[in-house]
């Protein structure tokens, strides 16, 4: 068996000789280079070489003797034995044949590089095939930025010695493995200069929800170690795989991280590889560390790698700041999110909670309660009792034993792919990472609730909150005579909600998406040049990474809409254009200078009436541009559009024309445009409204308010607000019948059926085609509809004949 193999000649079949990491590198270089995946070249030493090195002079027997009598729980003894073994290994010369082979392979590798200043990374790959690879991750050493054969040889020996670092020795003993079961392969690979570039991690699925159609990329400046450790809060990107395969714009979501520091080399020496954290310049922090083109290139590599291995993958990447190119450094199977078979669903639901103490990125969709343990370092490990909430600046592999005992983890620093996040996911405990302030703001000993049950943002609340955990089998939902859809307005929760059984999204309110993704009044963005003061500064700061104010609105809105459309594709997703009232619009940043004060905003300048007035036309065109981009450019043609609060047929016609003028013509690229049926006029002369639309979705909130004359926001008259009132039912019957007669879509998306299952039953009997519910009531309503008899609600006296079907 040879002692050294070029990476290009290695494949997965060589795993026993070069370990998982190096086998995977070789496999990618050999098989995927032709498909465009760029992996830096080099060579690896074999397990055979390692064993012959240890066998020389009986070193292996001496090591075995020292370890056989060692009690690894005696920390002092372990430290002494480990240090002694490592120096024995470093002092022993390499066998002459191995040294010669390494020198030759290195000379050939250098010869392949055109760059005279190229340096090298020396990494370790453990060869124990039957051990879970993840547990070895991070146990052995890596030496970066090495130049010259002599230094390479020294680094290889240090890599060999690192199989006997204290953590690795203890790990093997705890897992019941003989030390001699494991060998080390060292790889010598061209150093990708991410210290002056950028780096990060890619997962070929969304790690929080397990959603398989997206690629998640994290990125920050400097060496990747900082992202993996969680020392920086990186930028994050989600890319839609079907869009990528079709060659369309496919970036669903961009999230700007702080990237406050970067790990770089301390000096220009290529012998001393010590690293330091340096502050990142404010203008570099304020922009994304990857361009859209970079993101797409990385996502393409990830797709090729995932297809090749046939399973979700966890990948490290880096951008060389000198040649500007993107490289893949490592790929291994993703083992946590991909475990979920989708047959059942655990959902934590938070009912009430104490004061908000800290917020950050949510890891794990669960809720944990316990006493706070603020830890300055892992040396304080003994203070943590089972069920405590660990609060730390950040964590590394040394923390793993203590993390196993925790009810939850909270860190100041880190993003979704940092060490704390990865371990928390594997352990199935909630974590909130990147809070910025938790170690300062949380009080040691105080009981807190760590909640990751509300999407991407995780929260720490004072005290023990009221929550429940629900497990539902969702693989065999019984048949029901209606489509159950969901109301989803939060883009960051869309992937998680899409796991529920569903027939698509019946209502995505654009107001919610604008609030979450933009938060700025559209007119203030359009007028940015003429604004000044703090508001102008704040708006300028937010729009900077997107190139300009209009681009900011359109691209951010497209991100929010495309997240929802992608999560539920190919099922329909009905997005409703904005229906802010004037008082609500005034609350957006800069909004007060554009919104009139109305006595009755609920009955005022809202919905369709805005789109057809000059002062809002440009804002409406930005909404249309985002929707058109998602449908026609990104290819998410499952997106349908809905228009709210259309008072008159004249308004209906004007809106239809305004949509068409903005590139959204009914029928074009399969576009369907619905109308909210939520004003009595809509139902009374339904046919005339339906001339301009492809169907109705009943807004029972506004409809009930307007039929009964009850202000839906007033506590004083709340008792009179009931969607099941006979007068309301009668009006709804008119709308349902009109749509069914014309063979047009008829659904409902108001709150009524989520709150009143008997109302849902009545609607089914009355001939509705789809019911859109709040996500938390979908499973319960589904079961009830599957089990029930006829609806218990009285038919209104004047009701027409029961509807004969969905279309006539
Ligand atoms: C409704 O009126 O029932 C509806 C769904 O719209 P909104 O609640 O947004 O007014
Ligand atoms: Mg409404």
UniProtKB/TrEMBL annotation:
Molecular function GO terms recorded: pyruvate, water dikinase activity
Domain PEP-utilising enzyme mobile: 385-455
Reaction it catalyzes: pyruvate + ATP + H2O = phosphoenolpyruvate + AMP + phosphate + 2 H(+)
Enzyme Commission number(s) from the entry: 2.7.9.2
Pathway: Carbohydrate biosynthesis; gluconeogenesis
Pfam family, one: PPDK_N
Ranges for domain Pyruvate phosphate dikinase AMP/ATP-binding: 16-341
UniProt keywords, alphabetically: ATP-binding, Kinase, Magnesium, Metal-binding, Nucleotide-binding, Transferase
Keyword Secreted: no
Swiss-Prot/TrEMBL cofactor(s): Mg(2+)
Domain PEP-utilising enzyme C-terminal: 482-787
Top-level taxonomic group: Bacteria
InterPro entries in UniProt: ATP_grasp_subdomain_1, PEP-util_enz_mobile_dom, PEP_synth, PEP_util_AS, PEP_util_C, PEP_util_CS, Phosphohistidine_dom_sf, PPDK_AMP/ATP-bd
Protein family per UniProt: Belongs to the PEP-utilizing enzyme family.
Family matches, as PANTHER family: PHOSPHOENOLPYRUVATE SYNTHASE
Biological function: Catalyzes the phosphorylation of pyruvate to phosphoenolpyruvate.
NCBIfam families noted in UniProt: PEP_synth (TIGR01418), PRK06464.1 (NF005057)
Record's protein name: Phosphoenolpyruvate synthase
Annotated source species: Microbacterium insulae
Organism classification: Bacteria, Bacillati, Actinomycetota, Actinomycetes, Micrococcales
